## 1
Amino acid sequence: MRTPHSNLAADLSAPSDYNDVPVGLCVLSHDLRFLRINETMAQFNGYAPEEHLGRTVSEVVPDLEPVARNLMDRIVETGKPVGPFEVVGETPADPGSQRVWMEFWSPITDERGHIVGASVAALEITERKRLEREKDKALKQQTAIAELGKLALQDVPFRQVLEKAVEAAATALDVPLTKILAFEDSAEKLKLVAGVGWPDGLVGIASVGIDLESQAGYTLLSGDLIVVENLATETRFSGPALLRDHGVVSGMSVTISGSEGRPFGVLGIHTTEPKTFDKGDQDFLSSLAAIVANAARKEDVKSQSTLLIREMSHRAGNMLQLVSSIAAQTFRHSSDPEVAREAFNQRLSSLARANHAIAQQGWVNTRLQLVVEQTLSPFAEKICMVGRDVRLPPELCFDLGLVLNEICTNAVKYGSLGTDDGLITLTWKVTGSADNLCLVVVWDDGKPAAAPNASSPSSGFGSKLIRQLVVNKWHGTIEVEHDSGYRVVISLPIAAATDEHTG
């Protein structure tokens, strides 16, 4: 059977409707020179038809020359047509863009039957291929969301959900680096707890700063999904060493919400080459973060339920003992029964508010901010509270509530809380290194206190209670200053609190 081919003279003298068909057509010589070309093919290449004639493929569309040379060699060698097949490349018509054509090449012979070139037909399918890619990507992302959601509903370890989330993000978004950073209890750092593409040993160890110190910190601060086009030119935050050391260029990050309004952490993805992320990519990452957030809350509830059942009898006994001790000490140190009764009721109310705030969080590591706000709620309008969203052992939070109530009672009698326009500033922060953390709480009252030094053992039951809890129980320190008003600085080692008083 004879192989289909055409005659060169016939191809060059084709009818005038050669220019009217919506398919790109051209005739190439053996050395890849354009002998004839229609308007459609010329538009593909970005030149007028007459600008092609006599010029080579390498001169007109150099990006396509290797493919054209290979095809011409095959046709000359086999004498057979080639195609249909896809050709991908760039032309001057649209510099920097990769376009796709479906092409068919057939041999052209001279009057003696020798192959002297090829006739080329091309149909651009760039948009069709883009839509196919978008469809495949959307299907991949939807499948990943469904699989992660199904896993999160099962009774599996929470870590398994975290690992599946970062794997799904890496695969569906085609990125080399993904991570989940957990907001640490100290509220000073975000710790890498799961990831893909990082060196061995980094997950569980590495951490980044918060606020403007890192992309993740800025994500928490803004509350929005953050897209980074080029980390090197980023001005909204500092590029942390974790990203710079791994050559990160582009990326996205989104907050993973947690329980009681405190974020669990941040889900982030990164590339080492420039990459853009469309609305679908952003929605996908947000969906993954929402699934992880639900799993995190589920884990918190499970942990709280287990611990709460175990703690109920233990805490109930301790609470009764504490109430009894407070009652005995309060009435013993007062000669006026009415004054003693009022002081006891205030201490009992403070104790109840602190206990309620901690019980709401299941007697697990507790948000200090909530305990302070609820314990001092009767004076909320006169106390300006400033501090990070720190989580501490529940017993330490409970005792701090009692301590602050005693200082507050002192301020009602002798300080700013006893005046109409008084204002107290209460701040707290965590200082020190990872293995030597210290909580520093500062009570700053601009009005000089007329009461005895709160750190003195002889200043009544309230001061004794403060010293007993801060110094004797938690191995902390108390400093009282009277230079400009009344200022109390309490320092507590958090490491000791975690080691000695959990459960």
Note: The chain has a mean pLDDT of 82.
## 2
Amino acid sequence: MMRFARRLPRPHLVSACLALCAGVGLSMPWQPAHATDVPVQAGVAASDATAQRVGLRLPAADKVAFRGAVNFDKAGVAGGGAVMYPAPGLVGLLAAVATHAVVSGTMRDLEKERIRTKADQVLAPYQSVLDAYTHQELMQASLAHIKTGSARQIIAQAASPAPGDTVIDSVPLFYLTQDHQALILDNAISIKTAGRVTPYENIIRIVSPERGGQAGPDVWLGDDAGMLKWESARMYAQALDIALADMATAGAAALPFKTVRYNEGAVERMERAQLISESCDYLVLRTLRGNLMAVPRKAEAQAGCGAAATPAG
């Protein structure tokens, strides 16, 4: 499976990942996954909801996927390169989400799997919460954070949209940094909408702000895991907003690439990328691979920005 996936162009990788992980292509009437639990956005009239519906389709898997973040370069594994986490693009998402990191049998891959397993130990204090954290809960909480579109609802995996409806399929994969300071989301997204011959497809990475000196399980899990669930829902919504904005601005003028420094937890990273948009809190970037990232601005940049702003995207 891995060798086959590597030969596919990136759009086909998105489709392959989503077809396996999100159950694309089945036909049933459009309906909310749990209609009583997922109301149409408050303040939108029924006629508007029918005309401008945006459906978030539930993935096939029930549980939200979490892994421990790892840097293969730092671990001394050959072939690490720019691959900072166990999900190098959609091939990694397919492996981690659909097959829990398929190992090809080579010594390099066996060593990487050993490192992944060790990295996942950071999740031990969170496991009881993560085992019960579902895509339904994540996506329902995200509705309050999504800024794009008017009428939104969660739809069943096998839903079939009406003409004019927009359907978003996604495979979210979260990482917790080893210092417990930040969450990282890689969200493989496919958007089908009227007026597009082929779906919009991309991977959106979101890096949460650093939690600060008191970061740890007590912070993330306090108040019935309120911070963990709130931040993951916010990040999921931010990824959708960025994807929808990118789809709407396709064909924009090319921007220069530059080196951007940002923090993943307490660790500084660098990315060669185009600056797509910015706010006081976030920079939205397009990487050399064509994927999109939203990374927190450095503290000094935020201090000089004035009043806090909504994250870009």
Note: The chain is about 30% helix and 25% strand.
## 3
Amino acid sequence: MFNQRYKNKTIIVAADIHDDSSFKLISEACDMADQWDADLHLAYSIDMPAAFTDPTVYAYWPQLQGALKELPYSEFEHDKSFIIDTFPFEANHIHIMTGDVALRVAELAKSIDASLIVTGKSHHKFHITHNHAKQILQAVDTDILFLK
């Protein structure tokens, strides 16, 4: 029954691509997607302090806005290339975002109508805890599979 529930659906794997332990998590999600003939997306969020994303900060320090736009973009493009070279993801199925992990994953799940979010423990920059999972569940009607 579990296998049929996600057959031909959309799955998100939420992981920190800079953490070696995430390779197993991503590989397992790839296997699940293959088995269920599901559409697989990768979500990776770089948690930036709220002050960096607050528009009032730019009024006092406009150089910060330019620096934030340029630095992450080049890093994200390198990360995207690495993911494509390492895992069987299409470029438009890789979502590298900035901001609160739970919020960004929930927004992505809504926007692509995901049926399942696969995640697990990872590096501190992208540490999904049971609390994050609870926040995501409150925001969307999507199942979460938390793997160790």
Note: The helical segments are 2-5, 22-36, 50-53, 55-60, 62-86, 101-112, 130-139.
## 4
Amino acid sequence: MAKKRINFEIDGKNVDVYFGLDFLDEIDKKFSPKEGGQSLGLGLQITLPTLLSGNVKMLAEYIYNGTVTESPRPSFDAVKNYLEEVDDIEKVFDEVISLLGESNATVISYRDIEKKMKKAK
């Protein structure tokens, strides 16, 4: 079965975004608390509510870190510029959130967090 991906044209290049284990490693490096120098692996659980609330800066982080396996990889600034100029930012959010709900590496955490957020409303 092929990996589920989304594609954006960033800085004039077609870029695949994939939310797999490499993506989780990147999110954990940047956002997960550490204990004894080791990541607790909570990056997705910490950042996903921010993304789901419509935070464009977090959307940029997700897209950028979802390109970790791309070569050449777009710069973080190129991703931010793309988001500042895209015609339909809501569509980008919808595509990213949809992929999080389908990718094997993220689906369980995504469903759990989504359920908790709905209960909290």
Note: The longest helix spans residues 107-120.
